[in-house]
Amino acid sequence: WEVGDRNARTAGGAVILGRARAVYGPTTVVPLASASKWLYGAYVVQKKAGLLDNNDIKMLTMRSGYTSFDECQPADTVQACLNRGSNGAYTAAYDNSFFYDGGHMQKHASLNGLADSNVSALAAAVRGQLGKEIFVSYTRAQPAGGAAASPDAYAKFLRKLMRGELRLGNMLGSHPTCTSPSECAPGEAAFSPVAMVGNLHYSLGHWIENGPGGDGAFSSSGALGFYPWIDASRTSYGIVSRYQANGGPASRACGQLIRKAWATGRTQ
Q1: 149 phi and psi, to 5 degrees?
Q2: Beta-carbon neighbour count of residue 100 at 10 Å?
Q3: Dihedral (C-alpha) 157, 131, 170, 78: value to the nearest 10 degrees?
Q4: What burial letters (b/e) apply to 226-261, b meaning 16+ CB within 10 Å?
Q5: Residue 20 pLDDT
Q6: pLDDT of 16
Q7: Positions of the chain with pLDDT under 70
Q8: Which residues pair with 209 in a beta bridge?
Q9: What global pTM score does this model have?
Q10: pLDDT tens-place string over residues 7-55
Q11: CB of 205 closer than 8 Å to CB of 226
Q12: 3-state SS of the chain?
């Protein structure tokens, strides 16, 4: 884990992993799963100089109706993955209704110059917009969930957002979308992941943690345990980096406690 400000890491630590005594550290590369979405949102905003059209906004806030995504294979291009099974299926009933799914960004990438991109080309495109120093790779040509990176690389990305060096930094929390089917207006939301229960909002590839008891932080929790955030004041960031199946909820809960402890100076 680590926390820091717009310029540098301020504090952090790691734990020994079992008998192998492997240590997770700042340079340990892990799958990002859904933390990939924040990177893709920033990529799109940067490439389009912050001038998003209605289709961009719908797809980056998961309201486009492309809600049947499953997975890619390692050799797939973005388009080949979209053509696989029901990945590219459009469901009119979910158009303009929040539905958390990787299909929105997969379709968006295919329509915006990345259709023929394999994992290497997708990584090159994303790094070309976010900065060569932000080393991100992809195990699948899947913008919403296929990236891998170290905490050090992701922290550089967060710090660039905080410094306003990436256009998304000044657009965090913009176009907030209601996400809770039980609490939003009828038809506004169809599906939100269990790990994000409560009436949070979703922005351009990232969550706004403004639900009950939330503190307004911006985040992008991954199902395998990678949880990055920028606090509501945009003065500090943090990362919890683990690799565990279905580890997202625990990492998010841990990260929220770290964030509160850092803000208040009190043990949580």
Answers
A1: -165, 165
A2: 20
A3: -90
A4: bbbbbbbebebbbbbbbbeeebbbebbebbbebbee
A5: 63
A6: 75
A7: 18-22, 195-197
A8: 217
A9: 0.96
A10: 999 999 988 776 666 678 899 999 999 999 999 999 999 999 999 999 9
A11: no
A12: CEEECCCCEEEECCCEECCCCEECCCCCCEECHHHHHHHHHHHHHHHCCCCCCHHHHHHHCCCCCCCCCCCCCCCCCHHHHHCCCCCCCCCHHHCCCEECCCHHHHHHHHHCCCCCCCHHHHHHHHHHHHCCCCCCEECCCCCCCCEEECHHHHHHHHHHHHHCCCHHHHCCCCCCEECCCCCCCCCCEEECCHHHCCCCEECCCCEEECCCCCCCEEECCCCCCEEEEECCCCCCEEEEECCCCCCHHHHHHHHHHHHHHHHHCCCC
53 Cβ partners below 8 Å, 6+ apart?
none
Distance between CA atoms of residues 85 and 89, nearest Å: 9
Query: Which amino acid type is present at position 164?
Result: G
Amino acid at 255: G
Which single residue is written with the structure tokens 């960031």?
237
For residue 15, the model assigns a pLDDT of 81
Considering only CA atoms, give the Rg of the chain.
17
Give the pLDDT confidence score for residue 7 in this predicted structure. 97
